[in-house]
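Progress note, sequence design subtask.
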């Protein structure tokens, strides 16, 4: 793969992992054609994906859920725990019930396999910047998962947060962007970014997706509220 461009910013190094050669080849071709994205490797299973991420110091791993030898969930756990690579899961969704497990493993987002070309490219860029990304249908599945569980009481782990950080976490759990949180809290967007960064660090979370999960699991956010 060549990819990469003459831009001063370094290219986003991507590994594409899918056991279907035509599928991963198609995604790789689309991404590698971008001036700021470099597909450094392709993988046909979870074991190969992990090895490729380590070998090429990848920034983003585009990872299918269902693969031989080691599935995407297990691969995501290892990649997220042992590297700084961001994981973007691929799913057919209608046949996959592993959204929650993948997000708990540290995945930064989900894409459906019938994603449009522009949305695929944008998703890789968003995740590479440290943000999270979920297709609306996946978000509904995640909320449904929490709705089916008994309500929890806010856990002591959140005691490390300031009042404003807790409020920020609640708004993140509602799906608000930084700009929308800033408007709701009547503060600057820079202040919101600071709150988000602080609460992620204090709670030991990788990104906003894990923040949403923590908010619901701790009882700070309640489905339907």
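Output:
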């Amino acid at each position: 793969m060549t990819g990469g461009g003459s831009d001063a910013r370094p290219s986003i190094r991507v590994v594409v992992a899918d056991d279907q050669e035509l599928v991963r080849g198609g995604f790789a071709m689309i991404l590698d054609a971008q001036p700021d994205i470099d597909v450094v490797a392709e993988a046909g299973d979870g074991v190969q994906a992990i090895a490729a991420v380590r070998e090429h110091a990848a920034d983003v791993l585009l990872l299918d859920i269902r693969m031989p030898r080691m599935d995407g969930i297990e691969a995501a756990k290892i990649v997220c725990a042992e590297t700084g690579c961001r994981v973007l899961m691929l799913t057919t969704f209608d046949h996959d019930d592993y959204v929650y497990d993948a997000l708990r493993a540290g995945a930064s987002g989900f894409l459906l396999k019938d994603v449009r070309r522009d949305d695929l490219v944008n998703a890789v860029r968003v995740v590479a910047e440290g943000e999270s990304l979920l297709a609306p249908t996946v978000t509904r599945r995640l909320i449904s998962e929490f709705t089916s569980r008994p309500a929890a009481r806010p856990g002591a782990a959140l005691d490390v947060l300031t009042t404003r950080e807790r409020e920020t976490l609640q708004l993140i759990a509602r799906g608000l962007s930084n700009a929308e949180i800033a408007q709701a809290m009547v503060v600057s967007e820079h202040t919101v970014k600071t709150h988000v960064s602080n609460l992620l660090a204090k709670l030991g979370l990788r990104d906003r997706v894990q923040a949403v999960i923590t908010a619901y699991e701790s009882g700070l956010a309640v489905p339907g509220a």
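The chain has a mean pLDDT of 83. Work on this subtask will continue into the next period as scheduled.
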